[in-house]
Fold this sequence. Notes:
The chain is mostly beta strands. 0% of the residues lie in helices and 51% in strands. The chain contains no helices and seven strands. The chain is globular, with a radius of gyration of 14 Å.
Amino acid sequence: xxxxxxxxxxxxxxxxxxxxxxxxxxxxxxxxxxxxxxxxxxxxxxxxxxxxxxxxxxxxxxxxxxxxxx
Length: 70
């Protein structure tokens, strides 16, 4: 198996049965959920959590709605 999610300059920080943590060249970190569907490993690319730079806020997008918490 090969998982091709890195871009030049990115690095893998951690791999568990639940997720892969990738530090992007920008310094942000993507937490990519891993699913095991009856023995088939899949990445849930629609539910990535990005830890980035900001002023202590959390932003969630649901369809066309963005919810921001300070």
